[in-house]
Design a protein that fits this description.
Distance between the termini of chain A: 37 Å
Number of domains of chain B: 2
Largest sheet of chain A: none
Oligomer: heterodimer
Number of domains of chain A: 2
CATH superfamily of the largest domain in chain B: FAD/NAD(P)-binding domain
Order of helices and strands of chain B: EHEEHHHEHEEEEHEHEEEHEEHHEEEEHH
Number of strands of chain B: 18
Number of helices of chain B: 12
Largest sheet of chain B: 8 strands, mixed
Strand content of chain B: 15-25%
Helix content of chain A: 55-70%
Radius of gyration of chain A: 22 Å
């Protein structure tokens, strides 16, 4: 259950906004709102995750503070969103991590993992401090060890994220069967991949401050597609290993390295940009309880990309062994914290956009019938 | 900071749409401009921050409006809502000039919703600002900053020095201290006097105590009053204005759009005595909302109660305050502190008079009463399905129409028929030239934009070129040539 005060704040927001509707030209939140008259907790949870947290509506609002109605959609929806992250997380007790998943926790986790990997690697007799011929990092950590540990951690995270998504989906009032709607999936994918809701026909949105700009959209694209590109690189690496049986480290002009490098650069530019924007944000519309989570995610991505790029550049040198262990430590920390940190915003936002696509097709079906 | 306010070409008093349109237009042709806005920055832009759209003539669909809306149709609409109390020459000039307004506003950075978007019924006649009037005004203020217009907030003009139709200086209270501001020309765009409760009482009597002011608390009419005292000819009547029926629980000021109630045509409205007093189903609500404020203002204690049953729920725009609810009419009347028997009798008489028809809220349907006084002529369904709901209604004053007489150059006219030498007016302060009474959605912003642009342009032209050598701009030419 939403804390009573937050529930009331959400209901007040939707009552005023739904009686006004001046924002209907902005984003999906307002168009979704208009198809409802009553807002129960699950509606608020859905709308909160549909909100892309830009701020355009706040600056346009005739009722934003100091007006007595005190309407602050980005902040109220952000608070509800944070609550839903805890609500949907699996396993439940770990959901508490959301409150505490700040920078410090992530860095501590990374430090512990790195220390553990270093110790394990040394104990297994690898020559951690010496250059390895051809930059073959499997001589530092055997391929089987790498594959096994990351499969376990990755599977666990994927499972936790899937359960979280399904919990969101059920809470939003949908059944599992409605997931399989190709048209809605296609529309939602388009919205996710283009960040259309931050676009306003090319004018951008009020982020980090009032003046509309495309900065958030582009830095998010750099981060998102950088991440995706790194995933592609890893997948290709696995294919090279298992399918083609190429067991050495891929060459500089091989596909895994190209995708990894491009992705890594995206993951440097994107998170740095997002960090700068985050710092410049108008504090009036920020839910400070999320700042730690936001920062932890950004910093972790940045540490991964920088250590990864360094690893590539210095793989012939004596630093390779240490860099490899550090890089893998950061990656593993990301995997472990994914279901309990900022990463989940992408899961629930995508789910909300999918639900919105479904609602739109239902509305047009109803119109066609009428 | 405030000691160097003098020495500019054009002083604009006010900070709403008309004021900023004037300021930007004056700056466009090279004049230096100072804007004195009486509100603090958070509440800047007068009633414009509560607006949403403007009504524009167009002969073919545009990217912000569907279909066509011709000069003649637009003029007929003005004639119809004002009952002919308009100035045809000014009205037609405004209509023709409205055709270029959206393009000009876009150049100032204003964004519009795309035509046919959403559920807007006015998509043919009106262009809607993306995000509403405050977003529109934010764009204006951003543009003003870019082009170097000085804006001072918390600067209420309390006095004007005018000699023989010539403006000399204004006295503004800035940070609590009076500051005298000299300028070559002044544009008065400081709105009406709807937030001046004493003035309202003078015009309406004690009833005015029960009015709610839908918009800004900063429209005190001080500049209007000073100019009238200094010999500017007035136009319109103090009791005329745009007054709608709004939720009785709305705040005294600044409640804006969310306080409106759209359920009158779905039910009946009784007064304090439990009597009906007007045909709730006379016409579509968007065509009738503007008369209901006045209807309620003329009832005892200036209050009405709209009663509906559960059939009506969900058929009108959601309201911001929850209705009073009861399982039967008597109980509902008790909650409302109305004479119970009377209300029950009124509802029964209405229900008995309802004729069978086919209900359709989107057309003027055949559901009506027979033998009732007054009749309800459309959408009359029996109020018989509990739970029953009621909303209190109060007059919500939006604009006042008593203002300054102007000519087509937006120049204020002095008593005796001569034009003022360097005083122009735009927006609500002169809206009475076109609207003697009544209102139609979006026309306030249209008049403000059209006259703001003209006033700014004319004021700049006069400030930059001494009267003797100045070639008068032909208004119509500039309006069309500008685009």
């Amino acid at each position: 259950m939403l804390p009573t005060e937050l529930l009331q704040e959400g209901e007040h927001l939707m009552t005023v906004c739904n009686a006004c509707r001046y924002c209907e030209g902005y984003c999906a939140v307002w168009q979704t709102m208009e198809s409802r008259l009553v807002f129960v907790e699950s509606d608020l949870n859905y709308l909160a995750n549909l909100c892309h947290n830009c701020g355009e509506c706040f600056y346009s609002c005739q009722y934003s503070p100091p007006h007595e109605f005190n309407i602050n959609p980005p902040k109220t929806l952000a608070k509800i969103r944070l609550y839903t992250y805890g609500l949907y997380a699996w396993p439940g007790p770990l959901a508490k991590a959301f409150c505490k998943n700040g920078l410090l926790v992530s860095l501590l986790a990374a430090a512990v993992l790195i220390a553990f990997l270093l110790a394990a690697s040394l104990a297994l007799g690898s020559r951690l401090w010496e250059p390895v011929r051809g930059g073959d990092f499997y001589q530092i950590i055997p391929h089987s060890v790498m594959a096994l540990t990351f499969s376990v951690v990755g599977s666990f995270s994927a499972l936790a994220l899937l359960i979280g998504f399904l919990r969101f989906w059920r809470d939003s009032g949908e059944s599992y069967s409605t997931l399989a709607n190709p048209v809605a999936l296609f529309r939602a994918a388009k919205d996710v991949l283009s960040l259309k809701n931050l676009d306003n026909d090319g004018a951008g949105c009020s982020y980090p401050r009032e003046k509309s700009s495309e900065a958030l959209r582009w830095f998010h694209h750099a981060t998102f597609y950088g991440f995706l590109s790194c995933l592609v690189a890893t997948t290709l690496g696995a294919i090279y290993y298992y399918v083609f049986g190429w067991h050495g480290p891929p060459g500089f002009l091989s596909l895994p390295v190209i995708f990894g490098t491009v992705g890594g650069i995206g993951l440097v530019i994107g998170p740095i940009g997002l960090f700068v924007l985050l710092r410049r944000r108008n504090r009036e519309i920020v839910d400070e309880n999320q700042s730690g989570m936001d920062l932890a995610f950004i910093v972790l991505l940045l540490l991964i990309s920088i250590s990864g790029l360094l690893l590539l550049l210095l793989r012939q040198s004596a630093a390779m062994g240490t860099l490899l262990v550090v890089h893998l430590g950061f990656v593993m920390t990301l995997f472990l914290t994914m279901p309990y940190g900022k990463f989940v915003h992408g899961i629930y936002r995508s789910g909300a956009l999918l639900k919105w696509a479904l609602e739109r097709s239902r509305q047009s079906e109803n119109k066609a019938k009428a | 900071m405030t000691d160097d306010l003098s020495g500019i070409d054009v002083l604009v008093v006010g900070g709403g749409n008309a004021a900023m349109a004037a300021a930007l237009s004056a700056r466009e042709v090279g004049a230096s401009v100072l804007v004195l806005e009486s509100a603090p920055k958070d509440f800047r832009a007068g009633n414009s921050r509560h607006t949403r759209d403007l009504r524009c003539m167009h002969d073919a669909p545009t990217n912000v409006m569907a279909g066509a809306y011709t000069e003649d149709e637009f003029y007929k609409d003005i004639q119809s809502v004002t009952g002919g109390q308009t100035n045809e020459q000014l009205a037609r000039m405004t209509i023709r000039a409205s055709a270029t307004c959206t393009e000009w506003m876009k150049r100032q950075g204003v964004r519009f919703q795309r035509a046919l978007g959403g559920t807007l019924q006015l998509g043919r006649t009106n262009a809607f600002f993306l995000g509403g009037g405050k977003a529109m005004m934010n764009a204006y203020y951003d543009q003003a900053e870019r082009v170097g217009i000085r804006v001072v907030y918390n600067a209420e003009v309390v006095d004007l020095k005018v000699e023989d139709g010539k403006f000399e200086s204004a006295t503004a209270m800035v940070a609590g201290k009076p500051v005298e501001v000299r300028a070559k020309v002044v544009v008065a765009a400081s709105g009406g006097f709807e937030a001046n409760l004493d003035w309202l009482k003078e015009a309406w009597g004690p009833e005015a105590d029960n009015f709610l002011i839908r918009g800004t608390p900063y429209n005190k009419g001080k500049v209007l009053k000073k100019l009238l005292e200094n010999g500017v000819e007035s136009v319109g009547e103090a009791k005329q204005g745009h007054m709608v029926a709004i939720d009785a629980r709305a705040p005294k000021f600044d409640g804006g759009i969310v306080t409106r109630l759209d359920c009158v045509s779905l039910g009946i409205v009784v007064n304090r005595n439990g009597d009906r007093f007007y045909d709730e189903g006379e016409d579509f609500w968007p065509k009738r909302y503007a008369i209901w404020g006045r209807l309620v203002a003329n009832q005892p204690e200036q209050i009405g109660y709209c009663i509906i049953d559960s059939k009506a729920m969900g058929k009108f725009m959601p309201s911001v305050f929850p209705p009073d609810t009861a399982q039967n009419i008597g109980e509902l009347a008790k909650i409302l502190k109305l004479p119970v028997e009377k209300v029950v009798a009124t509802v029964k008489a209405y229900n008995d008079a309802v004729q069978l028809g086919t209900f359709n809220h989107d057309v003027l349907d055949d559901c009506k009463t027979s033998g009732l006084d007054p009749e309800k002529t459309h959408w009359a369904l029996r109020i018989d399905k509990p739970p029953f709901y009621a909303y209190g209604l109060r007059p919500g004053l939006t604009f006042t129409y008593l203002g300054l007489k102007v000519d087509e150059h937006a120049r204020a006219q002095m008593k005796g028929g001569k034009g003022a030498r360097n005083i122009f007016a735009a927006g609500e302060i002169m809206v009475g030239n076109i609207l003697g009474k009544g209102y139609t959605a979006g026309i306030g912003v249209t008049i403000g934009t059209v006259f703001g642009r003209i006033a700014g342009r004319e004021a700049a032209s006069q400030a930059l070129h001494p009267v003797e050598t100045r070639k008068d701009t032909k208004v119509e030419e500039f309006v069309h040539a500008a685009d």
